Amino acid sequence: MNILDPKTLSFERNPNGYLDMDVEGKTYCNVRCTQLFPLSDPQCYIAVFHKPVPHTEEIGIIMDLNGLSSSSYDLLKSEISIGYFVPEILSIQSIEKTKSAHSMETWTVETDKGGKTFQLSSPKENVTVSGKGAVFIIDTEKCGYKITDYQTLPIVSRAKMEKYLL
Fold first, then answer.
1. Which of 11, 32, 50, 64 is least crowded, fewest Cβ atoms below 10 Å from its Cβ?
2. What total of structural domains would you count in the chain?
3. Closest CA to 90 of 148, 38, 160
4. For residue 64, is pLDDT > 60?
């Protein structure tokens, strides 16, 4: 893991609308930035990726955004807000195990962005439950979903989730 010093970084938006990052004279074009856990601390743990064809390469992690110039800070925060779309699950209609050699489940849920059906493999690896009741789910397409507090889900939804996860 490469830790990036925010004092040595600068970001600017290129003509194509992507971010470019300069690290001590080396420029990475078309970088993507993603906030890592804990999501409750938006100032810390930002992963920066470079997407050369055909693979994505992690450049490093910014442990704390303090130290970035104000313009780089604003660009980075804007990029994170655009790139980190995480619908909130409001209710769970069904969770069905698939009949295959792999541990797969099909979830049908209602989110704050509408209805969604997604596949989940290896729930123990792709579902994180915090001590405060927050749940974060990564589906097979690497899309994220959150439940701010699973105790506030409708009781039928909570029972379905607990049957498979807890």
1. 64
2. 2
3. 148
4. yes
* Predicted structure pTM score: 0.54
What's the domain range around 127?
Answer: 89-165
SS3 38: coil
Evaluate the CA torsion angle 33, 37, 43, 46 in order and state its sign. Answer: negative
Q: Indicate whether 93 and 79 sit together in one domain.
A: no
Mean pLDDT (whole number) for 131-138: 82
Tokens of 41: 């601390």
- Single-letter code of the amino acid located at 36: L
Cα–Cα distances in angstroms (integers) from residue 45 to residues 8, 20, 65, 101, 165, in the given order: 16, 19, 8, 36, 27
Q: What is the mean pLDDT of residues 147-151?
A: 88
Contacts 24+ apart (CB under 8 A), 105-113: 105/164, 107/137, 107/139, 109/145, 111/87, 111/145, 112/87, 112/88, 113/87
Give me the pLDDT at residue 63, please: 94
Does residue 37 contact residue 27 with C-beta atoms inside 8 Å? no
Based on the domain organization, do 70 and 49 belong to the same domain? yes
Residue matched to tokens 């856990």: 37
Take residue 27 and report the two structure tokens written for it.
């420029």
Pairing of strands 3-4, 144-147: unpaired
